[in-house]
Amino acid sequence: MMTTLQFEAAEAEARLCRSRTRRAAYTLIKDNCEPVLTVQGMLCQDTDVRAGGTGAVFKQCLKGPIAIKLDEQGEMICLDLNTGGITPVKNLATLTRPDLLPLPGLVR
User: Fold this and answer.
1) Which residues touch 51 (CB under 8 Å, ≥6 apart)?
2) Under 8 Å CB-to-CB from 98, ≥6 apart: which residues?
3) Terminal Cα distance for the chain, rounded
4) Rounded distance between C-alpha atoms, residue 62 and residue 42, angstroms
């Protein structure tokens, strides 16, 4: 009887350890990676881009090369890679909160 309990306790501890490892990895990625979407050709109208707790549905097509990324304040910006010009995405798209939108296969 004690062997069965010890086995179950060891299995539960192993699952907990894996869960902590996943959380730690997620935190490291979130804190140290900068999401950047680079478009060489064309970003089409109604494209949904999500990053940093914000989603943006673009109102018009945008000609590349451009990069969509987060600035220092966490706001989404559009960087023209030819001229270096910066435009806030809120001027080009309808902003949404992706945490309120259903994503197939995403477990929260």
Assistant:
1) 35, 37, 68, 69, 70, 76
2) 50, 53, 54, 55
3) 37
4) 6
Tell me the C-alpha distance between 12 and 7, whole Å: 9
What token pair was written down for 48?
Answer: 């949904």
DSSP annotation of 45: T
Give the pLDDT of residue 106: 52
Give me 43's structure tokens. Answer: 């970003």
Task: Note the pLDDT tens digit of each residue in 13-69.
Answer: 888 788 888 888 878 877 777 889 999 999 999 999 988 778 899 999 999 999 999
Indicate the pTM of the whole model: 0.63
Q: Cα separations (Å) of 66 from 35, 42, 77?
A: 14, 9, 10
Cα separations (Å) of 5 from 14, 16, 17, 43, 105?
A: 14, 16, 18, 57, 34
Alpha-carbon separation of residue 75 from 35, 58, 94 (angstroms): 12, 15, 13
